[in-house]
Amino acid sequence: MESVKQEQSFMEVVKERRSVRHYDPAFNISEEELKDILTEAALAPSGANMQPWKFIVFNDQALKEQLLPIANNQQQVVESSAVIAVLGDLEYIKQVDSIYDPSVEAGYMTKEVKDSLVTNMKGMLGSMDSQYIKDGVIFDCGLLSMQFMLAAKARGYDTVPMAGYDKNKFIEAFDIPDRYVPTILISIGKASQPGHPTTRLPIDELTFWNGITK
User: In a designed cystine with 113, which of 42, 96, 109, 139 is the match (CB 3.0 to 4.6 A)?
Assistant: First the structure.
């Protein structure tokens, strides 16, 4: 099915994005377009460009029904076109050659620079606390998730991020390997009801210049 609306301006996307919880269950987004949105989302920054994320796309209705109670019976899980589970890859170092070799081939770095980066990264990771690594992976997945929602809105689709689900039951139900940590679920589809407008605190109440002031 064609996009609802194409190529909105950046400011329209930022200002019009809402967390939408009611979707048209008859509306379908093709797998090809979902892959396009994920490709755009995956342009998000990450530490050392390690891209420590993986996705499970739930667009099969039976599987969405299985996911529903795990996600605290949030109806958008079954009404939206798809639910994207963003997983953090704690063993992202295993894909370092797949990431850096194309950069060498493209002339973005020399093989010597690549080899030095890989050696340094493996050394750093070997000395890092596992919680520190996990925190970094979750941070990067947050950047990716926001970019996904903006990319979806730019195409006229609506989304809602969901942190409120049972991660242990999710891991068990979908046989998630230990190397992956579930971070967030994102419903995507066509809104049947608009998201509620919200207000934001004035920026002057949120901003300090050159240090904290009381």
Answer: 109
